[in-house]
Amino acid sequence: MPKYLIIAEKPEAARRISEALDSKAKPKKIGRVVPSFVVKNGDCEIIVTTALGHLYELTTTISDRTIYPVLDYKWVPKHTVERNKRLEEWLEEMGKIGSGVDYYVNACDYDIEGSLIGYNVLRFLYGVSDYRRVFRMKLSTLTNREIQEAFKRMSPGLDLGLVKAGETRHIIDFLYGINLSRALTRSVLRFLRTPYVLSVGRVQTPTLNILVEREIAIETFIPDPYWVLRAEIVINGETHEALYEVEKVQSLSEVKRLVEEASSKKAFVEKVERRFEKISVPEPFDLTTLQREAYRVFGFTPSRTLSIAETLYLNALISYPRTSSQKLPPDIGYREILEKLSENSSYTKAVEKILSRGVLNPKQGRKDDPAHPAIYPTGEWKEELNSDQLKLLDLVTKRFLATFEEDAEKVICRNILRIGNVRFIMKGSMITKKGWLEVYSPYYSPEEKTIPLLKEGDILTVKKIIVEEKFTNPPRRYNPASLLREMEKLGIGTKATRSEIIETLYKRRYIIGKSISVTELGFSIVSTLRRFSPKILSAEMTRMVESDMEKIESGLIEEEKVVDAAKRELIEILREVGNREVDVGKHLSNSIITILRNRNVIGKCPVCGKGDLKIIVSRKTGKRFGICTNVFRNRCMLTIPLPQNPNKVYATDKTCSSCGWPIVKVVTRKRPWYLCVNPSCPGKTNPPKKSA
DNA sequence: GCAAGGTC
């Protein structure tokens, strides 16, 4: 009886695979830390075990983080790098579970990383060198039927092309990231009392550069004036507005001419137009779309959305969230999910309506993912969900229901008026068919505007013509959600890592604020790299790595060649930076000193308006309080009490909605809360308790 | 206390 070991990428996959392959759908669970299963399937015995994402990672023997170049690297168990007891036990038990089998099956996600995760387990944990004992199973939706088919049709050997491509990607990112980070970090050492960690990477640095370019576009923006013309029209005793047919008038002389030509007191209704427009059913959620929508609807940051979605997934309430697919294949079992959802009274009516139409044909989006379908609810329900989880689950559920619905429709009405020689337009719109908007409520409701019903040939009274001067606006700053979208557009980062990378930029203090601004340090990092390694600033590096990976995958170029070329280039860059170390260090450390100085600034002083309100700790008493920097110059008097240790107080970019004073974040042993620093704030319904 | 990529 041949014995197989199937290796999944994650516990959920191992569970699904073992249930699908067991003839009685009751696999026997083994393993204390690693969810693993013994499966009976015909005349073979199968053990299903699982990795936990990457179990191995690259490291270097040069552990001092101020020494470079680092050109040596090797794969080591992940737990040896970050001292993770759980991963250590995981690897140990996984090794035992897989000993003594005849065949190994890599059933990790069918993509580059999945191929590499399985490969590393095979070579490092099980010491497999004979690829005749190895198979690759190709899975995407993890439904019973698909898993059974994939097991029958698994291919012999491994997808070594994908593996090598993946390994090269890891090496290139590692070498560039570690070396450039160390070079910059080292340069500032001699100028600072305590070390400050700087980082550079193939994804984070181009992302920072996007923000710098936007910042420059905003700073150099010159507003242009333009004029808007409106006519106030009296209809049945009520005043209504019509806009000049050209939205923006570019010159003042043109405005004067128009006003003269429109000097008549009568408006003729020249035409009444009615046009119907479809509002299409939205695509199913992939992770990025979900993150964007949750930001729009709830104000959740992308990383918060991912972490909530993760919890929902681990509670089996939604499908796998780290997907870039917008497709809902029939395999997931539409009807069963819908029927389960209908048990929840909030969705009963919507489901009944969908089922009553007979055919279940959800909208499919454009984007795809080799390893997962779009995000959908499983139909399960749990009592103990917090409000964030409830919100996100409701959003995912309603989006899923919406994809089975019909397009909505609106009518756009335009009353075209002529005043003298000039045409003005009164525009309104109304939803005429709710379609999917009904189940997706309250998450999307297009604006509606009613206008009076007129007939062609009607004559109306003009009350007056209003001219308003306006100015063009600079480009908007990015927020975490729009930045995420831009990264996706440029193809940098992956669905699972983009939000983390944005967090890294905040953590390093390269950027600040919800409406993102680049700090002086962020600018300095970019200008330094522009001098020494412009390639890492652009998305071009990602494209090059990708094209090299494709060549490696199809055997057009060898892994070693790509790595050697990268090393040579890197050595050159590092030599240049090394030669200019003092120069570079001075530039960067100046920005760091500014950041450290501003770190305790909680906002502008609300009393004198000139100084900064700062958190300081008294040398004498050890007490924490807030003080305006102008107090030291005898130009202000403001000092304010703040919570004391063991609580911590951090600056935020928020201000109080009732008094406009700065708001600080207070981190207690229990949970963080936000405090307006104004001791006599009128909005304070619950004054904070005095801490001991 | 360094990257980006998996996953809890």
Element layout with pairings:
Blueprint: E1 3-8, H1 11-21, E2 28-30, E3 36-41, E4 44-50, E5 56-59, E6 74-77, H2 78-82, H3 85-97, E7 103-106, H4 112-125, E8 134-136, H5 144-152, E9 155-156, H6 160-189, H7 204-219, E10 225-235, E11 238-244, H8 252-261, E12 266-279, H9 287-298, H10 302-314, H11 334-342, H12 345-356, H13 387-402, E13 408-419, E14 422-433, H14 437-440, E15 459-471, H15 480-490, H16 498-507, E16 511-512, E17 517-518, H17 520-532, H18 540-553, H19 559-579, H20 581-598, E18 601-604, E19 612-617, E20 624-628, E21 639-641, E22 648-655, E23 662-667, E24 673-676
Parallel strand pairs: 1-4, 1-7, 7-8
Antiparallel strand pairs: 2-3, 3-4, 5-6, 8-9, 10-11, 10-15, 11-14, 12-13, 12-15, 13-14, 16-17, 18-19, 19-20, 20-21, 22-23, 23-24
This protein binds one DNA strand of 8 nucleotides through α4, α6 and α16.
Q: Can you describe what's shown?
A:
With 692 residues, the chain is of the alpha+beta class. The chain has five domains: 3-158, Rossmann fold, CATH 3.40.50.140; 168-219 and 477-594, Topoisomerase I, domain 2, CATH 1.10.460.10; 225-281 and 408-471, Topoisomerase I, domain 3 (Distorted Sandwich), CATH 2.70.20.10; 287-402, Topoisomerase I, domain 4 (Orthogonal Bundle); 600-676, no CATH class. It contains 20 helices and 24 strands. The strands form six sheets. A seven-stranded mixed β-sheet has the order 2-3-4-1-7-8-9, sandwiched between helices. The chain has a six-stranded antiparallel beta barrel with strand order 10-11-14-13-12-15. The longest helix is centred in the first third of the chain and has 30 residues, at 160-189. The protein binds one DNA strand of 8 nucleotides through residues 9-11, 51-55, 57-58, 65, 70, 86, 108-109, 112-114, 116-117, 166, 169-170, 172-182, 184-185, 195-204, 310, 314, 322, 493-494, 496-497, 500-501, 504.
